[in-house]
Amino acid sequence: MESVLNMRKKELLNVMDDELLEKLYGFCYARTSGSYEAQELCSDIIYELVKAAHTEGSIDSPYPFIWRLARNVYADFLEREKRHSAVFYEGDSETVLSVIAEPEREDDSDALLGSVYRRIAFLTKAYREVMILFYIDGMSTAEIAKHQDTSETAVRQRLFSARKKIRSEVDEMNEMYDRPVALDRIEYVLYGMGNPGWSDPRKVCTRQFSKHIIWLCHKKPMSASEIAYELNVPTVYVEEELEILEEGENDRYGLLRKLENGKYAINFILIDRETIRTANGIYLEAFPGVCDIIIDFIEKNKEEYLSFPYLNRKTDLNLILWQQLHKIAASFSDCVERILCGKYFASAGAVDRPFSVVGYVANGKMYGGGQDSVRAENVCGYAKILLINNYNTRIRRHFSCNLNVAQDPQVQLALRAVDGLALCQLSETEREYAAKAIDCGYLYREGEMLYTKILVSDLKDQPGLFELTMRLNEGFFDREAEIVAGRIAGLIRRTVPEYLLAEWRLFNVLAGLPVLDHLIERLIERGILMPPEDGLGAEGCWMSVAR
Q1: Dihedral angle sign, alpha carbons of residues 407, 411, 415, 416
Q2: Structural domain of residue 120, as residue ranges?
Q3: Tens digits of per-residue pLDDT, 228-249?
Q4: Residues 6+ apart with CB under 8 A from 163
Q5: Are 200 and 293 found together in one domain?
Q6: Are strands 541-546 and 455-458 parallel, antiparallel or unpaired?
Q7: 241, exposed or middle or buried, with CB in 10 Å at 0-12, 13-18, 19+?
Q8: Distances in Å between the alpha carbon of 258 and those of 225, 230, 238, 254, 263?
Q9: Quick one: which H or E segment has residue 525?
């Protein structure tokens, strides 16, 4: 070691190289019972040296100072309990990283100390953890090995590599910290299809941090350190977020998947702005012809729609068409899907899980709607109940999937009023609920009687409820569907990763989203549909029951 005289304490870090560390370890090993205690003592000495380097003052020569400090620490080491309380930091190691002050001057040793700690934060997990456990938490290599379920040799190798990485990349980290954080606002429109109670990974994708990680992995598979560099965020936080996004809600289905090479790739179809506009445009180009076919079909089949054996006292075509509308609009995309399946993706396989996510980068447009369904048993004299609410740009939802029919007085009144319910049978409280049920479209009043306004059918007739609408799939759109399928297939091949091709159906669903909204508006213009004034009425809500 080269002799250095008259040094400021803050320059001590400059002489802490591997040669010095090895000599300090030899000093400790000679004075302890083995490598276990030697590692503990050596970590205490290094800790005290870092503390000394963070103080004011100067020293005549660094090495006599270092060895004096080492002997003093050794003396304290003999009083184990006193040493442990005086030297080790007992709190969260992440807190240490967060309280390091930003450097004010490049030549200040605070900058070097801060860079060292920040570099620890940016190391990948295996190396970062041993650095924190050894230098900040003060654990021995044996303790770290037990904690990480690995060997002491592996721990020592990681410590050596991490120390080397910190020294060689401090300059790079200083440069990196001059970069602005890259978390500009990004939003996705994410649809879930199937049973969300099984596992819905959308619930863990609410932070901008999560969304940016997903976007980077959408472009190409990336490692934690690559993502950290792109976002200018410590690797420790990226790794934790990656674990969450991979596991999803309950470790069944995540928005990211981990590849064999350790990198992370997107695990669902996410379409960028340009692609979703292109996909929607393909469907919209075919819409005028498709819409004419649908309108002609409705006009020719009015009487058959009205002939279905609903249980209501009276029904009208408007409510029936609102009930059927999602199936009517989907009939065209179903035809496209059939062609895609047989002609373009026959060998792509199929997805076998109860719930799937698909989405696109928000582009100012929200298409389509959704459906909430609730099942109940033994309520108001009915053995089984299926309650459905279709919603879209013109229809607001009445309830969500977590509705408890047994605790909803308005729905119960709708059940009781299927055959008619006399007002005189209601208590004052029930009259208040009845008024609300009338206002939202569940009921209507004729004289002193209440009747159910939303469509009600018998569960035994459920298989035939959409039978008439499903005839639209029988060759009505073949010419238009062939053209759309060819263009959509090409877009899928160009934009969807090979390993996600089995989910091509979900891409087609997003592509066809505009059809429903455009169909609704065209039918309203033609006087075939009438929407509720405030968006909430009997339209779109219906139920099937079994006594």
Answers
A1: positive
A2: 7-177
A3: 888 877 787 788 889 989 998 8
A4: 18, 21, 131
A5: no
A6: parallel
A7: buried
A8: 14, 19, 14, 10, 6
A9: helix 514-525
